[in-house]
Design brief:
The protein is of the alpha+beta class. 18% of the residues lie in helices and 25% in strands. It has 4 helices and 11 strands, in the order αβββββββββββααα. The protein has a 6-stranded antiparallel beta sheet with strand order 2-1-11-10-7-8, with no helix packed on it. The chain has a 5-stranded mixed beta sheet with strand order 4-3-5-6-9, covered by helices on one side. Strand 5 and strand 6 form a beta hairpin. The protein is globular, with a radius of gyration of 20 Å. It starts with a helix and ends with a helix.
Length: 173
Amino acid sequence: MAEQEKRQVYGMLIPLGGGDPIPLLKKKLLVGRRESCDIVLRFPNVSAHHCELTIHDGYWYVQDLNSRNGVKVNGKRVKVGEKRIDPDDVLSIARHKYRVKYDPQKLGAVGPPPDDEVATVFRKSLLERAGLVKRKRQQGEVPYEAESDQPRRIRADEELGDRISRQHSKRPL
């Protein structure tokens, strides 16, 4: 049973410039240059954690993770939130283009595809949509801190803490 789940393919990314197809083996995939990503794209213009692909209600969606060179679906840049990828759409990650192949009915879709905006609105909290809360942190990432008028305090070992204290005491208020 476990082997059957591992081998299930939820779709394929077909490189338009030639190359081997990339199977979509999980319902949530991190795409980027780092070896820790689910789909590793070894190109210098691809960010370490470039984008995330997820399945919702039988359809694939892409979310740009603040990459430097962006993500496009059919030539339109994905700016905020998620963008639905329909079967045979062209997904551009940096400047690398892939045709997305999958069958929504096999992934659980019923009826016509949901409206992109409505689906995104109900999937995220108000704070997430307003950009006040970032995605869940990966191990080792620094937590998001809202900007304020107060100086930000940094916890560090004693030596670094002393150095920071000396720097702050020299600055005029």
